[in-house]
Amino acid sequence: MSKLSIVGIGPGNYDNMTVRADQVLQECDTIIGYTVYVDLVKERYPDKEFMTTPMTREVDRCRMALDAAREGKNVAMVCSGDSGIYGMAALIYELRGESTEPAVDVIPGLTAACSGAALLGAPLTHDFAVISLSDRLTPWEKIEARLEAAAAADLSVVLYNPASKGRPDYLKRACEILLRTLPEDRPCGVAQHIGREGENARVMPLAQLKDDTLVDMFSTVFIGNSQTYVIGGKLVTPRGYRDV
Fold it and tell me: Considering 90, 110, 130, which residue would you say is the last residue of a domain?
């Protein structure tokens, strides 16, 4: 039976790819994905057939992968981070429908909430919410409601897709929403180019984050909860073990 694996490749460097993801990519015939993600793995798997689509062509990409698998190829679709967290796994299942062919395997990967948190310290040791600021698929009103709910619930918050050329002020807007509930000195952090050239992490208060102009689509943003504080330049959210 033909097979399609949706593979989370982590932040981009081989060191942060799982052993299982590497094994699947070694064994497959064809690697399919968004151009940027395929470029991250091309050098390591040079003998594979590569097929790509640009951004916003997710449906075409998934249909391409399903068709290739139905032709008998062992196909791997690569996703940055985790294949099921803002990845292609759900869309593959939707397009395949009730059919059982091709067989589908979801291969998990290290999402930016985990890899970015490690760069910043330990900001997600307690409950947290992950929210994308991209309104291409989600209305801004719903994003705003989720931000307000997370702030009211005193959750640490991770923001994906915080800014882009077409959305340069979205992080500022998100911070203004959070500041309705959170104090200006709430510790925050930015992890940028995780696992790639130019990797860096910065810690700052929420008021400063609001006006940060360096955040882009290669950034992941962290907002602490009421217990989060900075230790030696690192962002730390305690679980409460010392209080037991």
Answer: 110
Amino acid occupying residue 203: V
Could you give the CA distance from residue 108 to residue 116 in angstroms, rounded to a whole number?
Answer: 17
My answer on whether 207 and 117 are in the same domain is: yes
Q: pLDDT (tens digit, 9 = 90+) per residue, 52-85?
A: 998 889 999 999 999 999 999 999 999 999 999 9
For residue 136, being part of any structural domain is answered with: yes
Domain extent, residue 136, equals 113-236
Q: What is the number of structural domains in the chain?
A: 2
Tell me what the mean pLDDT of segment 102-121 comes to: 97
pTM of the full predicted structure? 0.94
Residues 103, 21 within the same domain: yes
Sign of the Cα torsion 4, 88, 8, 124 reads negative
Q: What confidence score (pLDDT) does residue 55 get?
A: 85
- Whether the pLDDT of residue 12 is over 90: the answer is no
Question: CA dihedral in degrees (85, 205, 140, 112; nearest 10)?
Answer: -10
**Exposed (0-12), middle (13-18) or buried (19+): which is 136, by Cβ within 10 Å?**
exposed
Largest separation between any pair of C-alpha atoms in the chain: 59
117 and 102, same structural domain? no
For residues 182 and 177, give the distance between their C-alpha atoms in angstroms, rounded to a whole number. Answer: 9
